[in-house]
Amino acid sequence: MKKNPFLNCVAVLGGICLCVALILGVVNFFTAPIIRDREDAAANAAYLEVLPDATTFTDLDLSLLPAGSTVTVAKKDDGGSGYAFQMVTKGFSDGLTIVCGIDPDGTITGVRTLASNETAGYGKACEEESYYSQYTGKGSAELDGIAISGATVTSNAYRNAIKDAFAAFSVYAGVKTQVSETDAALECVPGATWVQAVSGTSAYQADTGALVLRCEQNGIVLFVGVGSDGVVTGAYLYEGEGSDPALYTGVTAGTVGAVNDPMRDAVQQALTVQYDQINHTRILQIVQSVLPDASDFEQLTLPGQVHEGGQATGGHSTTATLYADAMGAYRVAGQGYVFLIYTDGYSQSKNGPSERIRIAAALDEAGALIRSKVLYQSETQQFGVDKVLNNDAFTGSYEGKTEAGSLVMEENAYATYTYNGYHNAMKAAFAAYALIAANGGAG
Amino acid sequence: MKQSKWGILLRGILKENPVLVLVLGTCPTLATTRFIVNALGMGVATMAVLICSNVAISLLRNVIPDKVRIPAYIVLIAGFVTIVQLLMQAFVQSLYEALGVYLSLIVVNCIILGRAEMFASKNKPGDAALDGVGMGLGFICALLAMSLIREVFGAGSFCGIEIPFLANYKIGILQQAPGGFFVFGSLIAIVAKCTKGKAPRRHSFSCEGCPSAAVCTGHTCTAQATPDKEVKPS
Q: Residue ranges of the domains in chain A?
């Protein structure tokens, strides 16, 4: 019988594949447990490094953790020396794996970076002992400020992962961990992405326009968030006991007198005197950044929304859409107007709305730009900062104009996002002026 | 032509050294010879796979049809490499991590596929096994020679143990790619000198092993035809 050559090939090849697969299955069956044990031992080795006095571990239930926690493994030492956590988060790239040990007092016993795909020369420094050893011995309130210069995204992600570890610790240990003031302030304004201290005061301002005031009385410290409409957005008990922060949500200066709580008087003081003072201080700082001679200002309400921008033009990233919003309008008698603009840039595209560039722009009575100042930015030093924000030739090209015109970028500057972001901010400033002018010069 | 058993074994070590004479398998050679321990591990792993695949292919040489011989060889070789990988991962994990991706790359190591094509598919299992041992030993010798030079003079250590005298006189470039190529080329030159006149260079390639055999007319071939094989007409 003549062998059909095609079927013969298929049969032989199929037969070989089948046999090889069977043999591999057998070998795998015997080696898989050994490999798994070795990997567990290697992984536990990491936990033993960060929690040196530990002996054996028990795994903890991850379902108890808050949603969005980056903690993937939680272990408790059976000998009582503390807890070890593994967090997997995203810095600049996925796969940033960190282990952290926390002792029962809430102090970090050790931190290690197990794996990272961060950029060499920037975020990859998080793998060095000189970086992660900075966390050892710190409590939950002392984490701000540990960063790699030039690697904001990685540093923020790392710090947030450690904060998640503390959050997990407080869940499992049943202990309330002390948070930093900025975290406490953030808790008071639901929906805010960042808070920034108002210099010269003990208060914080949030990106939503809310102010967070620090109220202290009889050893209790309460942070109270107040929206721009004067209504309390939330409160957080920072130190001490006996006060219930939930009682304050929704109260105003007029209704706070009815609250039955030890901190009532301090909060009332904050909502009346302190609020007006600090709000004024905060805005005066913004105004004086562009109009140094201004001694006072009039707060205006924009008659409509200012939302400028769209598809990024030119350069290397024309698929991005970037916008700028006017977040505040102020009139300085005899000089002109100051607008507070939040605009999207490169850092915002990577790390969210908290990293929008904040710019103050001063326009004279006729609507020509006097000058502008960057209040906050976290763009890339050698591109966005050097080529755009610190480039006086570029930023100065808008001065004296009454409209933004078209964007002129340096060729191959690799700063498309920042260029477009700044240009949108200028457009927003002129658009805000146009709204005010159409309304007769008042807000 | 009949070859003695000893001949099969010994020619792989020097006269037809796969790395230094046949210039096959240069990728793992250059990659794993920075340290002696890694080179040894790679050499032993490759020899194990070589012997097993040679024997398996030789046993199946009359079963595998010509049309599907390459896929069949690769499945077999990949199977053996996976077994070696699993065993290494279970029992010698440090070496497994040191070799990394190069362990998987043994599958496409030209030595193994080349010997399968040129020898194992045409000879008995016993001879094929000896060929595997010989070529494997030759591979290990070449790797050891390279890694000895690169680690001792490039990193000032021997198998990871620092040599106190040489630690201050490291020739760093030997640990990098250019130094590797330099050592490689020098070794090829030395071996060529040692086997001058004895290396059957022209006879080591048969037309069947040549990739352009199908279109060859014999006039432009640099590796000329062996006397016992006809040049295939185009």
A: 57-173, 181-286, 298-438
